[in-house]
């Protein structure tokens, strides 16, 4: 009988070891260790054994065989369960690579970036930042700047009027120069300010003109200020903003609020010139209109286009591109 028990145990162990799934394993365990299994039928034969010792020995052999098969089944079940769990996880895995891409980050508008860099450069040169309203009175936009009503120079700016107050008394500011007057009427010299801001003109958009654009104004009022200070400031700013390969020049020009007046151009490393803005020594009439004694104080002012600077800085061909909001264009910067 002991051989029968060993044989039944070996068959059961082989079946358990060969099971490929937990289900099959359970089925084999039930078959081999169950009530109708080979070990159970051997147990039924115990009663027929002649001696108590034999019954005891065979009973013990049967128990050991059953325990061995159970232990082998438990061990194999743990292995199969782990394999099945891994397969299940692999099957349920979701492809989340799309979400692992870093989210696309935007950036400030090219003009805003230029505006902020300009402020940084001028703050580095010792200037403070001032601002004024976009809707201005005729007085600040023109009259304080040495352009009395019906002065012909007013036609230098294609003015947009706002229906407010007396006809023609309120305008969308055509330049940032009114901030000069706002600063001079509220601050005591010495004054060193820049005033970046949005300005408006009744102009048709083209490659170098927008009806809404941005300027930065500079104003210095102090004792003993000369034209050389103006030229030096423009040169220092040009190199700080564009780099040392760039330089500047001044050409005689006319603005009612500066005397003498000039336009300034930036020379690119390839030798070509870009017209950037106007400048000059603050006109004594402007100082006087703002309550500053022109006998004691003098100064210079300048104003130039931020949009054109940003266009130049980034090598953009057409100002209108910068306002098209076309992602294919924006993503290049
Ligand atoms: C003025 O506006 C004067 N206020 C500048 C000034 C300030 C002179 C202080 C003296 C003292 P002007 O109209 O030329 O000047 O404009 C100055 C700059 O603004 C131009 O050189 C150009 O760079 C920019 N600009 C003018 N019109 C436009 C436009 N439609 N679109 C984009 N940029 C423009």
Automatic annotation (TrEMBL):
Catalytic activity, as annotated? tRNA(Phe) + L-phenylalanine + ATP = L-phenylalanyl-tRNA(Phe) + AMP + diphosphate + H(+)
Cofactors demanded by this protein: Mg(2+)
> Where does the protein end up?
Cytoplasm
Q: Answer whether the UniProt record assigns the keyword Zinc to this protein.
A: no
* Signal sequence coordinates: none
User: Do you know which CDD domains this protein is assigned to?
Assistant: PheRS_alpha_core
Q: GO terms for molecular function, please?
A: ATP binding; metal ion binding; phenylalanine-tRNA ligase activity; tRNA binding
Cited PROSITE patterns: AA_TRNA_LIGASE_II
Q: Which organism is it from?
A: freshwater metagenome
- What UniProt keywords apply to this chain's record, in alphabetical order? Aminoacyl-tRNA synthetase, ATP-binding, Cytoplasm, Ligase, Magnesium, Metal-binding, Nucleotide-binding, Protein biosynthesis
The family note in this entry says: Belongs to the class-II aminoacyl-tRNA synthetase family. Phe-tRNA synthetase alpha subunit type 1 subfamily.
* Enzyme Commission numbers on file: 6.1.1.20
Q: What class of enzyme is it?
A: ligase
The name this protein goes by in its record? Phenylalanine--tRNA ligase alpha subunit
Q: Which residues form the Aminoacyl-transfer RNA synthetases class-II family profile domain?
A: 118-310
Q: Which InterPro entries match?
A: aa-tRNA-synth_II, aa-tRNA-synth_II/BPL/LPL, Phe-tRNA-synth_IIc_asu, Phe-tRNA_ligase_II_N, Phe_tRNA_ligase_alpha1_bac, Phenylalanyl-tRNA_Synthase, tRNA-bd_arm
Q: Name one GO cellular component term.
A: cytoplasm
Q: Which GO BP terms, alphabetically?
A: phenylalanyl-tRNA aminoacylation
One Pfam family this chain carries? Phe_tRNA-synt_N
How does the record describe its quaternary structure?
A: Tetramer of two alpha and two beta subunits.
């Amino acid at each position: 009988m002991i051989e029968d028990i060993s044989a039944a145990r070996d068959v059961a162990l082989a079946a358990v070891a060969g099971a490929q799934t937990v289900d099959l394993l359970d089925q084999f365990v039930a078959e081999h260790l169950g009530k109708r299994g080979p070990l159970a039928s051997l147990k039924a034969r115990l009663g027929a054994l002649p001696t108590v010792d034999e019954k005891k020995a065979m009973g013990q052999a049967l128990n050991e065989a059953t325990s061995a098969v159970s232990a082998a089944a438990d061990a194999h079940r743990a292995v199969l369960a782990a394999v099945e769990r891994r397969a299940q996880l692999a099957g349920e895995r979701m492809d989340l690579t799309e979400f692992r891409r870093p989210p696309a980050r935007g950036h400030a508008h090219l003009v805003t970036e230029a505006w902020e860099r300009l402020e940084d450069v001028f703050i580095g040169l010792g200037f403070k930042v001032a601002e004024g309203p976009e809707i201005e009175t005729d007085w600040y936009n023109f009259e304080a700047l040495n352009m009395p009503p019906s002065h012909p120079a007013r036609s230098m700016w294609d003015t947009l009027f706002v229906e407010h107050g007396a006809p023609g008394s309120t305008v969308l500011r055509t330049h940032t120069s009114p901030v000069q007057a706002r600063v001079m009427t509220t601050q005591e010299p010495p004054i060193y300010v820049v005033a970046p801001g949005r300005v408006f003109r009744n102009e048709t958009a083209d490659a170098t003109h927008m009806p809404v654009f941005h300027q930065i104004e500079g104003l210095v009022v102090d004792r003993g200020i000369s034209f050389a200070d103006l030229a030096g400031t423009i040169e220092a700013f040009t190199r700080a903003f564009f780099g040392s390969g760039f330089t500047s020049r001044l050409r005689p020009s006319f603005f009612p609020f500066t005397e003498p007046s000039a336009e300034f151009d930036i020379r690119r490393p390839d030798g070509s010139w870009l017209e950037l803005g106007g400048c000059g020594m603050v006109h004594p009439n402007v100082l006087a209109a703002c309550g500053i004694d022109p006998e004691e104080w003098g100064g210079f002012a300048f104003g130039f286009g931020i949009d054109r600077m940003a266009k130049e800085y980034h090598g953009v061909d057409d100002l209108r591109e910068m306002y098209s909001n076309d992602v294919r264009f924006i993503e290049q910067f």
